[in-house]
């Protein structure tokens, strides 16, 4: 007898699985004309999708207005929903009944990874927030110092929990869940860590890339809806070249003008060094200071302007727009192939007309990583600054060591 055999599924479970698979295959493969222009119900789905989009954009704008900390909280909520949708992909009801603690173990690893990632990103800003209170500062400094040890201890608890709950005839399913959980953690937290880092460098660096993905997605749908005739890729039967090209042009143009609008608000461009929610003001970075730009000679003579003011960041925005329109959509194609492998239409149904949260975040994940790498490589100065030195002092020295450093600096200044 084989030791690792699957638990027999109930007839109702198998029926639901067959029903879902057959429905999905009909949508993905059986429809001889899956393009939106030939969809008889396209106007109904268009209205549902439009209402959902309006609600999402409205909520997104409100959260951005509230500030860095609330945007980070929004990213956290999105992460939880994404993890829930992905955890459910490989779940099997009969096996889960025999392993009642497996769901709790998955979430234990999830929140341990969350503590590790967010602790590394937000530790300096948390220390900057509580410097006025000596007790809180000591507490935060201790947590920062032993942060990695705490996370490792929690992970070891989860690892031992997993080993101690291994059950005969369930080994294959349990190790599959263990591997699947860690893959989800890599996918979800890689994206989120770069996203949160962008937020605190300035909301601009989070908002512009995210907006470009939204614009590209909307106009790819619109151009494909009205003009789509030529299929783009087999993984996504409804994607067309007309939608792809139309969205690309629209996204690149939008990037140039959106950067000009967003770059004029200190609330969006100033970096946040703590976890407070107060209004931000700072000296504008040279990237966000208007400069005169003379239009090239090939511009037609009837064009009314020969010179215009351009923010230097607008040229960088063109690079972001190019990536958002040409490379980032491949994140969506990857997700489409992933769903086809599991014979599902969407990752979830939490957003009417759009599917699940993961369906909306596939391209955002690719874009967030690129925006961070571009920002750190070509925009953010890598030289040592006063702010960076102070951050290192606040997070790595005790209060007594900081006082001693302050005294020594005073003596040095006095001698000079």
Please, could you describe this protein's structure?
The chain is mainly alpha-helical and 416 residues long. It has one domain (11-380). It is built from 16 helices and 4 strands. It has helices at 11-30, 42-66, 68-89, 93-98, 102-129, 134-145, 147-164, 171-201, 203-227, 241-262, 266-269, 313-326, 329-341, 357-378, 386-396, 399-415, and strands at residues 231-233, 236-240, 291-294, 307-310. A two-stranded antiparallel ribbon has the order 1-2. A two-stranded antiparallel sheet has the order 3-4. Residues 1-32 have low confidence and may be disordered. It catalyses: a 1,2-diacyl-sn-glycero-3-phosphate + CTP + H(+) = a CDP-1,2-diacyl-sn-glycerol + diphosphate. The chain crosses the membrane at residues 54-83, 104-123, 143-166, 178-197, 203-228, 240-259, 313-335.
Tell me the layout of helices and strands.
Layout: H1 11-30, H2 42-66, H3 68-89, H4 93-98, H5 102-129, H6 134-145, H7 147-164, H8 171-201, H9 203-227, E1 231-233, E2 236-240, H10 241-262, H11 266-269, E3 291-294, E4 307-310, H12 313-326, H13 329-341, H14 357-378, H15 386-396, H16 399-415
Antiparallel strand pairs: 1-2, 3-4
Helix pairs in contact: 3-8, 5-6, 5-7, 5-8, 5-15, 8-9, 8-14, 9-10, 9-12, 9-14, 10-12, 13-14
